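Need a sequence for this fold. Nothing fancy.
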């Protein structure tokens, strides 16, 4: 992700930063320039940019927030909002990053950098996706944010990466359904397990979990005493995954428990 570039005049403004400011940063444990001091907008912005370049993301975010606070009607304030959002993202303060990006979008919904703001929001959720054994609320928020980006800006430079991440998110959500379905299956709660495996087949059919879900549907339908449904699931499995281990297992089960189905 590339931070917004400054115009040549803005870059030259870096030379205006007082040496006293730089010395003060070093003396006061790199926090002096984040304290509230009224400064001209270019000096304040470039101080934030320097912090960002040094990898001091928290300090950079505070300074970019100051740009917006001290100079809310300056063109620099718009850039500072995005730079603040990116700085918080880089420091893994995802909540503040999302808030900064959403504030930018609420004020500048039609700005040319809006796709980037949507992308940052989606990344913040995506990078918090947790293990399938945990609650998947964040995963669903990542899916929603990525989908929103693709829907609004299908031709943007961020859309292709968003589509890739959507596939990974779908695979993750399907993995969660499989985890729960296996849990119910171990407890012999066949109907509950069937509902989970059915959801994988119906909603996440393009993921890596579909073949296993179909095979486990065969197991559940046989356990429920409805071999015709097991036969249908096995047929779909055989048509789409004929050489897989899951089809071999399903074929063997059908031969043992429902040879006439």
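Here you go.
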């Amino acid at each position: 992700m590339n931070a917004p570039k400054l115009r040549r005049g803005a870059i030259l403004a870096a030379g205006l930063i007082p040496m006293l400011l730089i010395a003060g940063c070093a003396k006061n444990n790199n926090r002096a320039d984040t304290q509230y001091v009224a400064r001209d907008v270019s000096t304040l912005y470039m101080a934030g940019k320097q912090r960002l370049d040094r990898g001091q993301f928290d300090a950079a975010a505070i300074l970019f927030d100051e740009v917006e606070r001290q100079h809310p009607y300056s063109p620099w304030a718009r850039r500072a909002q995005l730079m603040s959002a990116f700085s918080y993202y880089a420091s893994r303060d995802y909540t503040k990053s999302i808030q900064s990006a959403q504030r930018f979008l609420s004020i500048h919904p039609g700005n040319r950098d809006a796709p980037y703001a949507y992308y940052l929001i989606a990344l913040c959720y995506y990078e918090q996706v947790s293990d399938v054994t945990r609650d998947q609320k964040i995963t669903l928020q990542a899916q929603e944010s990525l989908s929103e980006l693709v829907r609004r800006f299908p031709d943007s430079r961020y859309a292709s990466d968003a589509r890739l991440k959507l596939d990974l998110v779908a695979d993750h959500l399907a993995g969660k359904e499989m985890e729960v379905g296996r849990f119910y299956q171990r407890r012999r709660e066949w109907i509950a397990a069937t509902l989970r495996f059915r959801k994988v087949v119906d909603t996440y059919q393009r993921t890596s979990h579909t073949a296993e879900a179909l095979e486990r549907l065969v197991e559940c339908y046989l356990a429920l005493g409805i071999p015709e449904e097991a036969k249908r699931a096995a047929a779909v499995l055989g048509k789409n995954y004929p050489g897989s281990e899951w089809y071999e297992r399903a074929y063997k089960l059908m031969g043992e428990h429902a040879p006439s189905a």
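For context: Confidence is low (pLDDT under 50) at residues 1-32.
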